[in-house]
């Protein structure tokens, strides 16, 4: 038999649960970015929304907040191609499509597909390859819709714990899924995946949830527990605080990338694949840090 007190608690939980399910408020994201180019040891290398060969965007439309990161494949530099051009143009195209309202919040793969096919249709081919991760918050439904192709990705943190994370996509060690455009003579010889191959997910978020979206330069150098330690320093939802925390995370990953005595997640993954590797992984680093807040005009 339930006591009166127990029954009261159950009623209270039901009321609270009912209110959360019928929350009519729109949600939004407050997002800050920070990053480092691999070849910029002394500070942040920023060109538009590019950090080295990484690129990112943050965009809003009346129905959704959308953001993304992309990591240009550096190997193209050996063929005289600037890898940042492909990733940067891909993200700029995604941003434009969002701002023009040419997207469906529940289908982030669609944004990625439309952007990629625009690049394919350019009269002058834009050669290169890139991973990509797109995150969309539907303001009214409070659902986060994601698409991740390759080894960039995202974490959703609630109450100091990771409650959602993207799945990394690798063909084999250190060879992630990627979008590519190759010259005609090299088609078939260059690794290229379809946007439809992106891993997709959809789930509800709550006010106060933290969303961290980043390229592999972060995840290869900082394990989750280190990221969570930095996120504990985030005390409020104003942009300045979020920016400071994003910078702190990016800076720590940048330092660890050049620590030869550190057993990084990348080094551990390499060892798991039979390679004798130790130290951080020097790489471009891009961090987008977001907090779910109540939408205000």
From TrEMBL:
GO terms for cellular component: mitochondrion. Its EC number is 3.1.3.16. Pfam families: SpoIIE. SMART domains: PP2C_SIG (SM00331), PP2Cc (SM00332). SUPFAM superfamilies: PP2C-like. One of its GO terms (molecular function) is metal ion binding. It catalyses: O-phospho-L-seryl-[protein] + H2O = L-seryl-[protein] + phosphate; O-phospho-L-threonyl-[protein] + H2O = L-threonyl-[protein] + phosphate. Its cofactor is Mg(2+); Mn(2+). It comes from the Eukaryota. Residues 35-292 form the PPM-type phosphatase domain. Keywords: Hydrolase, Magnesium, Manganese, Metal-binding, Protein phosphatase. Belongs to the PP2C family. This is Protein phosphatase.
